[in-house]
Amino acid sequence: MTASQALPDALQPLAELTTLKVSVDDYVATVTLARPDKRNAFNDEVIAELNQAFTQLGSSEQVRVIVLAAEGKAFCAGADLNWMRAMADYSREENLADADKLAQMLSTLYRCPKPTVAAIQGDVYAGGIGLISACDIAIAVDSANFCLSEVRLGLAPATISPYVIRAMGARAAHRYFLTAEVFDAVESQRIGLVHECVSVAELEDKVASVAKKLRNNSPNAVKECKQLVQYVAEATIDEALIAQTVEGIADIRASDEGKEGVQSFLQKRKPNWLS
To answer: CA-based Rg of the chain, rounded to a whole angstrom?
Structure first.
C-alpha cells in the first residue's frame, strides 16, 4: 500500500510531500523522514513539511497516534550541509528568521494534540535530538548513537534546548551539551532521552505495540493527559522562551567563532581554536 492510498481524502495533500512519507492505518499515522542519502538531515523543506504534516495530522479525526520514523541508517543527522553552507554568511536578522522556522516546527510537534512516538532506527545527532525530545515517547534500537555536536562547530543547541533538557534533564545536559561526546542507546535510556532500547528486529513490533495502546485509550483523555504533563512540568515552553532560544542561536551563529566553526567544518579543517 502506498502512502497516498493509505491517506484519508482530507489528508491527501500530505501525499505530495517530497521529503517525508505519510500513511495512516487504523488511526495510527506514520511520518517517515525520507532522505536516507542525506542521513535525513534538516533543511528548509524538511522543516516546512514536518510542520505541515504534524499540523494536519494533529487536527484529523482519522488519527489518534503519530509515529515519527526514518529511512536509512540514520534517524536524523541534524543540519543538512547545503543548508549550513547557505546560512554560513547569514546576517543576524536572517539567522533569526531561519532559526524561528525550526523553533516553530519543534513547537508544533511538541504541542501536537495527538500522542507522538519516535521510532529511532539509527543514529541521532544535533537537531535530530530535538525531534525525538519533542515526541511524547521515544524507542530506539540498541545500536543507535546520539550526539549533541554543536559546540564542536562553535554553536549551541539553543533552539532545541527546551525539549532536550526536559527529556534528559539538566544534569545530563550539562555533560552532553558541553562535551559533544557520542553516547550509546543504553546511556540515552539511562538519562531519560529515550524510554526503551530494543534490537533492530524488535523495533517495529515494539512501536506497533505502544501505538496500539495509545490508539485504544480514550482520545480525549490522552489529549488531556498530554496537556496536563506539559502544564505541570517545569517552565512553560511559551513564545517568550522560543523567542529567547531563537535569538540565542542567531547570535552565536553570527559570532566569529560560530562562523569559524561552521566554515572549518564545511572546509574539512580544524577550527582556529585548535590551531
So the answer is: 18
Q: Which amino acid is at 23?
A: S
pLDDT, tens digit, 9 for 90 and up, residues 203-226:
999 999 999 999 999 888 889 889
What is the separation, in whole angstroms, between the first and last Cα of the chain? 55
Q: What share of the chain is helix, strand, coil (3-state, %, to 5)?
A: 55, 15, 30
> What is the per-residue burial (b if ≥16 Cβ within 10 Å, else e) of 185-200?
bebbbebebbbbbbee
pLDDT in tens, 93-129: 888 888 899 999 999 999 999 999 999 999 999 999 9
Separation of alpha carbons 10 and 14, rounded Å: 9
Q: What is the DSSP string of 9-58?
A: GGGGGGGG-SSEEEEEETTEEEEEE--GGGTT-B-HHHHHHHHHHHHHHH
Report d(CA 47, CA 106) in Å as an integer.
Answer: 9
C-alpha cell at 235: 517552565
